[in-house]
Amino acid sequence: QVQLVESGGGLVQAGGSLRLSCTGSGRAFGSLTMGWFRQAPGKEREFVGAITWRGVNTRYADSVKGRFTISRDNAKNTVYLQMNSLKPEDTAAYYCAGSSTLSSLPPTTMRMFDSWGQGTQVTVSS
To answer: What is the DSSP letter of 71?
Structure first.
């Protein structure tokens, strides 16, 4: 399994931007599909977006399409989540996850991801 550590969370005003980072170690990070999930208080963890191992294909939840962008730098063992036009409803703990699933499109369900970070908090004030 790969060890994942998120960073970059914080407090931001509505309309602002944040960039989250997730750095991996252990297994070959570059061979994993990487995803971002989030969990708001009292709610289930939900899919945000994911990117295939070469960074060719991405998928996003409808709620973040056009505002969030996933990218990766395999030389740095890091995946990023650029979040723009943030809304109060984006407030949540954000988790990165790794999947060994080989597919042209990244998975969107939690059970397909077998490595998880500890999460980083994002709070968007109105």
So the answer is: E
As given in the structure block, the two tokens for residue 18 are 């944040």
User: Which of the four pLDDT bands, split at 50, 70 and 90, describes residue 26?
Assistant: confident
Quick one: DSSP state of residue 112?
G
Q: Hey, which residues does 4 pair with through a beta bridge?
A: 24
pLDDT of residue 27: 64
**44-97 residue pLDDT tens:** 999 999 999 988 899 999 999 999 999 999 999 999 999 999 999 999 999 999
CA 2 to chain centre: 15
Helix (H, G, I), strand (E, B) or coil at 55: coil
| Interacting residues of 22 by C-beta distance below 8 A, sequence separation 6+ | 4, 5, 6, 7, 34, 36, 78, 79, 80, 81, 96, 117
Instruction: Report d(CA 80, CA 19) in Å as an integer.
Output: 7
Residue 99, classified by CB atoms within 10 Å of its CB into exposed (0-12), middle (13-18) or buried (19+), is: buried
